[in-house]
Design goal:
With 398 residues, the protein is α/β, with parallel strands linked by helices. The chain folds into 2 domains: 144 residues, 2-Layer Sandwich (Nucleotidyltransferase, domain 5); 189 residues, Nucleotidyltransferase, domain 5. It is built from 15 helices and 14 strands. It has an 8-stranded mixed beta sheet with strand order 5-4-3-2-1-6-8-7, sandwiched between helices. The two termini are 13 Å apart.
Length: 398
């Protein structure tokens, strides 16, 4: 079975084609600037050769057509008929979806109902679904929801301390995101520890430009840092993370900002970028901190690391200890210094990092000392594989 994995943004489209007989990636890439001038597709074939195609992409249907053409041109498939199923990343499933599902008219309607909860993502996700239906009307499609993994959280983890009727009426609660990533690395961590998923308690640290931690108790999401939206929780590349809500009112008054302008500040101009005044890219900030002795860059790094450490400690308390801490995603997999800072001075709670083992990037390995009570693991994430596996499982039953 060949599964095409689609991840649609408002003006972008990431894709992978996987052969599920061996889970090999036959082709992958990204369409950028969809609906904008100078749009293009960058494709990587099975031999990892890169190809750039510059072409006007008026909409997502045109982008997916170009994806199919590229997969054929670079020998991933011989024709459109070779694609057996399509798996879509859908950001928000609300309380409706706790697992992946075959897409039909009812599912599309539910995704649309949830536009208010994910106004930047769900409309784009639905556009991708409809574009694939247009081009491949007889190919089954599956929705894999970022929020689904976190639907096992107890009410005490997801409820906010605001009048309960706001939850009853508007479903205002913590939902959590990055679910496919947390699920993938948690399963792999259990395998590395030689145990079943339900036998382990874990803290998974998905740390990229967007970042979240998840407390996984007996194989299920118990708590997570992102909330009603991805803005809550950790200090991120451009997102503020946790902040006193009164700051919003105060900032609006002092700067004469609208609510939308203020939320734009918190989502796109804050975090590491906002504190450092340099960049949201950790590599740029680290260079400024250590090579140029930039004080704002140092402060941004200190804040970034401190908040991760704070949540690690909190989640250990919530679960009465953990078997392992896992680092994943762009920064988690590659930033040696971040892992070292987060795990430093944690010996009193059983966390001991081996600095020599930690000197590695993007490779699955154990980076804790042999004596560490809590194992520290580096596991590269693979959200696309999770989507493809769920798609195969569901379509195989049709």
């Amino acid at each position: 079975m060949k599964v095409l994995v689609i991840n649609c943004g408002s003006s972008s489209l990431k894709y992978q084609l996987l052969d599920m007989e061996n889970e090999n990636v036959l082709g992958q890439g990204v369409c950028e600037r969809i609906g904008i001038d100078n749009s293009f597709l960058t494709h990587k074939d099975e031999q990892s050769n890169k190809h750039k195609i510059e072409q006007d992409l008026e909409n997502h249907s045109k982008a997916i057509s170009l994806v199919i053409d590229s997969l054929i041109e670079y020998k991933a498939i011989s024709s459109l008929e070779d694609i057996d199923a399509v798996g879509h990343r859908v950001v928000h499933g609300g309380e409706v979806y706790s697992e992946s599902i075959l897409i039909d008219e009812n599912v599309k309607a539910k995704v649309k109902e949830l536009f208010d909860l994910a106004p930047l993502h769900n409309p784009a996700n639905l556009t991708g679904i409809e574009a694939c239906e247009e081009l491949m009307p007889n190919v089954p499609q599956v929705g894999v929801f970022d929020t689904a993994f976190h639907q096992t959280m107890p009410a005490s983890s997801y409820i906010y301390s605001i009048p309960y009727e706001f939850y009853e009426t508007y479903k205002i609660r913590k939902y959590g995101f990055h679910g496919s990533s947390h699920r993938f690395v948690a399963k792999r961590a259990a395998e590395m520890l030689g145990k079943a998923p339900e036998e382990v308690n874990l803290i998974t640290c998905h740390i990229g430009n967007g970042a979240s931690l998840c407390a996984i108790k007996e194989g299920k999401s118990y708590d997570t840092t992102m909330g009603f939206t991805p803005l809550e929780g950790l200090t991120m590349g451009t997102r503020s993370g946790d902040v006193d809500p009164s700051v919003i009112q105060y900032l609006m008054k002092k700067e004469n900002l609208s609510i939308d302008e203020t939320m734009n500040v918190l989502n796109k101009k804050s975090g590491v970028l906002g504190i450092s005044k340099i960049s949201s890219d950790m590599r740029d900030v680290e260079d400024a901190a250590w090579k140029e002795n930039n004080e704002n860059a140092k402060l941004a790094l200190d804040k970034f690391h401190q908040v991760i450490k704070r949540y690690v400690g909190a989640y250990m308390a919530e679960m009465n200890g953990v078997d392992a801490i896992i680092f994943t995603a762009g920064v988690g997999e590659n930033a040696v210094e971040t892992r070292e800072f987060v795990c430093s001075e944690m010996e009193h709670i059983g966390i001991e990092l081996d600095k020599e083992k930690n000197n590695v990037r993007g490779k699955e390995t154990v980076i804790s000392t042999d004596n560490s009570k809590v194992k520290i693991l580096l596991i590269p994430t693979n959200e696309e594989l999770v989507i493809a596996q769920d798609t195969k499982e569901i379509v195989s039953k049709l």
